[in-house]
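WARN retry 2 of 3 for item q-0093 after timeout on previous attempt; input resubmitted unchanged.
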Amino acid sequence: MLESCQPEDIDYQSWDPYCLWIKIDQKTLSSKTIVVIAKKEDPDGVFHVFDYPYSLNEKNVSEISVVWKKDGVEISSKNGFSMIIPKNSFIGGR
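OK item q-0093 returned
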């Protein structure tokens, strides 16, 4: 699992700060990678789940980089894949 929390210099003005977790949901015959964003103070409360389009394992999840931006979060991998989650997809307790 990878964890990244919103830095102090990024302010969404909506229940900040947030954290992002990339989790591997391992099943018997398959695995699925999900991205979870939640308030840092209440990660089990209101949270938002996004599918990551590629399967990851414990080794290659560490190769993912997370950049918090004023307009959202960018997730990138060494293979060139990039995924942007706009802030409106997770702010405001939706």
